[in-house]
Amino acid sequence: MAQRIALTAVLVDDYDTAIAFYVGRLGFDLREDRRLSADKRWVVVAPNGGGGGGLLLARAATARQRVAIGEQSGGRVFLFLETDDFARDHQAYVASGVIFVEAPRHEPYGIVAVFEDPYGNRWDLIQPAKSTAA
């Protein structure tokens, strides 16, 4: 049986504000934006050129969900955006106003820096180290 994680839901306070960040600043593709009801939409964004899963931008509808916006991971890095050119993407993101909460650093697993989306969710921008496995 083949399986994959297709979408990860991210709680947001407003669809259009979230789209402006993910599409406008990060350069993600807007895969879907479909109205489901008067106040609910199915909004999916994904990294440009990526063949993997995407994010379902889920507008918080209850008080419990609103409190969880930006806290879905308890303050830890929540999402990992892999790149083939860290310097290019880091520079582009800084220029577009993305807020990095750490300076880039080299780790055994790659080059990485943590940024936050407008809601406080922490992301790793990461260029994996080249594998030395045979």
Compact summary:
This protein is of the alpha+beta class.
In the CATH hierarchy, the architecture of the largest domain is: Roll
The total of helices stands at 3
Low-confidence stretches: none
- Please, what is the average pLDDT? 94
Question: What's the name of the CATH homologous superfamily of the largest domain?
Answer: 2,3-Dihydroxybiphenyl 1,2-Dioxygenase, domain 1
Describe the structure using short key phrases.
2,3-Dihydroxybiphenyl 1,2-Dioxygenase, domain 1; 5-stranded mixed sheet; 20% helix; 3 helices; 134 residues; 4-stranded mixed sheet; alpha+beta; globular
Please give the structural blueprint.
Elements: E1 7-12, H1 15-25, E2 29-35, E3 41-46, E4 54-59, H2 63-68, E5 77-82, H3 86-95, E6 99-100, E7 105-107, E8 110-116, E9 122-128
Parallel strand pairs: 1-4, 5-9
Antiparallel strand pairs: 2-3, 3-4, 6-8, 7-8, 8-9
Task: Please describe what this structure looks like.
The protein has 134 residues and is of the alpha+beta class. The protein folds into 2 domains: 1-69, Roll (2,3-Dihydroxybiphenyl 1,2-Dioxygenase, domain 1), CATH 3.10.180; 77-134, 2,3-Dihydroxybiphenyl 1,2-Dioxygenase, domain 1, CATH 3.10.180.10. The chain contains 3 helices and 9 strands; from the N terminus they run E-H-E-E-E-H-E-H-E-E-E-E. The chain has helices spanning 15-25, 63-68, 86-95; strands spanning 7-12, 29-35, 41-46, 54-59, 77-82, 99-100, 105-107, 110-116, 122-128. The strands form 2 sheets. Strands 5, 6, 7, 8 and 9 form a 5-stranded mixed sheet that branches. Strands 1-4-3-2 form a 4-stranded mixed sheet. Strand 7 (105-107) and strand 8 (110-116) form a beta hairpin. The longest helix has 11 residues, at 15-25.
